[in-house]
């Protein structure tokens, strides 16, 4: 029809209209294409900026089946390289901080002997300016040794730990890192005094020592240090703790009161960890604390203006400090650097580390498929009685498969197996069960032990442990038995389960619902990805990616799997079987019930740890 001479002008003008319209559309689209997620909240840059990680627990490969946390450690290194360049181009400073817990949670860290043999060389590729130790570096000696010989050695004066000692030779204990660091930032010349603390942890191996903060502040070295570095010599104090920053965790409050005696108006920034949440707390008008989640799901961002006047008001705090929680994915990383092509984003070092990770995963066979899982099984997205609860799966199907390691172990006809829910670290997803899955769901290699007690006592233990709440930790040798999800700083506020204003931020961990990096503008609420919705002392605008909150359920301290005869007498000898990790708790619970037991009555039962039971279940096609 365009051959018709009369129609040609129309055709031309139609073509023109289409072209113009297309051009207009295209002109509007580039902003959309250049920035596929305009809904992301931008970072605020200040005089000094911090990038913070904590509780990485070996997740350096990224979350392979959750796109929203799919960046790997190499991508993270590229990201921070650009951020540092941006900061320096603006004449600002950028420092990297990590708050510990690098083991126990992923095949990359836990499938090697010693633990961390492949993951720590990957972790230390990141250029941290300040880092400290977590409790997972102290349960097992091999982890402490690696911390001392690999991590502390590599970072040298940047490895700051003011209350943990390591046995360097028989009976000789030395600080595992530097007790403090005093330095001046390269761009703004900010004089920083940095210290590092682990919470009052008592399950450390015998070759290490942890001094509680309450004891450290009585020591002469810290009093001398603060007397030497008088306020006129310090612009900013940085405390890097493997300690939750929430107001209800007393240790930082004690430390803060102590520091303020020497530095009444110096800015103090705390970095925290351990309870695996995103959190930000305002301690006073010149002091705040940031905690940046867990498992390479979050990169924390903290900015401080150093030149804000000394007057005290709420807006002063907001003018001084800013915080963000960045989702650990390329989409967020690239957005915050303003770089739109991956080729430009990835740095040679970042690329090298990503290759190193792939190689390590291949060598460890982490993607070796053992079997198939028929459904998602959740930790707290459903109640523990729901068919999709991982705890129901364990108590109904997995724990009954536990057998004694050898035939000489005497068995009673009745038994109760108890596990601390903290021994489960992650949801189990539908699809292939790989070697990695085993470590992700339950990394701990504890032994099962048994004690035989009259049935009337055995049946009460779970209830006592679950009624113990937080006091349990303090009374039973500070075991920190509570699973992280119950240790949220926000859990003091009653939980609202409609998902709209959940006081503790939560993530929905289903791969089915994780979003695609190329997803368009999130304009409608129903299009938001389910994930963390953080409510902290600055409000609820901290998450760089606006998420939709999810319903979460309370998880008890322990769950049990029973094999009991309803008709037998109360005095029937009954085997209580549990991980050796919770021996003190079980003895304490029996005592509460009126049965006095000694540790010597507890005997070995099996070395088939939870991960192995799950592995076997998958291998035998039982899901
Ligand atoms: O052998 C172990 C060691 C630890 N746990 C559980 O881990 C948490 C502590 O983990 P964080 O990452 O420091 O929060 C502890 O409360 C135990 O529940 C374990 O089960 N077995
Ligand atoms: Zn942790
Ligand atoms: Zn911890």
CATH topology descriptor of the largest domain? Purple Acid Phosphatase, chain A, domain 2
Note the main sheet. 6 strands, mixed
At the first level of CATH, the class of the largest domain is: Alpha Beta
Tell me the β content.
Answer: 15-25%
**Bound ligand species:** ligand LLZGTKA7, zinc ion
Alpha-carbon distance between the termini?
64 Å
Strand order of the largest sheet: 6-7-9-10-12-11
> Can you tell me the CATH superfamily of the largest domain?
Metallo-dependent phosphatases
Shape: globular
Summing up helix and strand content along with how strands pair, one would put the structural category as alpha/beta
In total, how many beta strands? 21
Which stretches are low in confidence, meaning pLDDT under 50 for 5 or more residues running? Answer: 1-38, 470-526
CATH architecture of the largest domain: 4-Layer Sandwich
What portion of residues is helical? 25-40%
Taking all Cα atoms into account, the compactness measure Rg is 27 Å
Mean pLDDT across all amino acids: 87
The total number of structural domains is 2
Total of DSSP H or I helical runs spanning 4+ residues: 19
